[in-house]
Write a structure and sequence with these properties.
This protein is mainly β. The chain has one domain: YVTN repeat-like/Quinoprotein amine dehydrogenase (Methylamine Dehydrogenase, Chain H). Helix content is 0%, strand content 52%. The chain is built from no helices and twelve strands. The strands form three sheets. The chain has a four-stranded antiparallel β-sheet, with no helix packed on it. Strands 5-6-7-8 form a four-stranded antiparallel β-sheet, with no helix packed on it. The chain has a four-stranded antiparallel β-sheet with strand order 9-10-11-12, with no helix packed on it. The mean pLDDT is 91.
């Protein structure tokens, strides 16, 4: 690997966490310290969105099939759903104590969220942005 360029991101350098790249080459970046979701256009090399409303954001996953990005707002104990074309928040799904990692199952159209301190996983139905199930996990479950 080699550095191609150095791009300044908005706000302070207070902890950036997960990132998720869409095929359209937009990179969603969680800015934990600022409670923001940064959207970066990789081709243009510019920030196209700096979204507020994501307290202590950790995990983020772009899901182009649903035209959404999902972000773990641990400060709100919720998953925040963003429309990927307008970059507006369309839903807040409450539940996980400390939502973190996010995965998507396209066939089922379900979003899976790990609860780092709650010992369970949450399953969100992507079409309705509601919790479909909670899966109890022991500490060795990787949450």
């Amino acid at each position: 690997m080699r550095a191609v360029t150095d791009v300044p991101l908005p706000g302070s350098a207070s902890r950036f966490d997960y990132q998720s790249l869409e095929p359209s080459e937009r990179l969603f970046i969680s800015h934990v310290g600022a409670g923001q979701l940064v959207v970066f256009d990789v081709r243009a090399g510019t920030v196209i969105g700096n979204l507020d409303g994501f307290p202590t954001v950790t995990g983020v996953l772009a899901v182009p099939a649903e035209h959404r990005a999902y972000a773990s707002a641990t400060g709100d104990h919720a998953v925040v759903v963003v429309d990927d074309s307008t970059l507006r928040i369309v839903a807040r799904v409450p539940g996980p104590r400390f939502p973190d990692g996010i995965a998507y199952a396209p066939t089922e159209r379900r979003v899976f969220v790990s609860d780092e301190s709650g010992g369970r996983g949450f399953v969100i139905t992507a079409t309705t942005n509601t919790v479909a199930a909670q899966i109890e996990l022991d500490a060795s479950g990787g949450v």
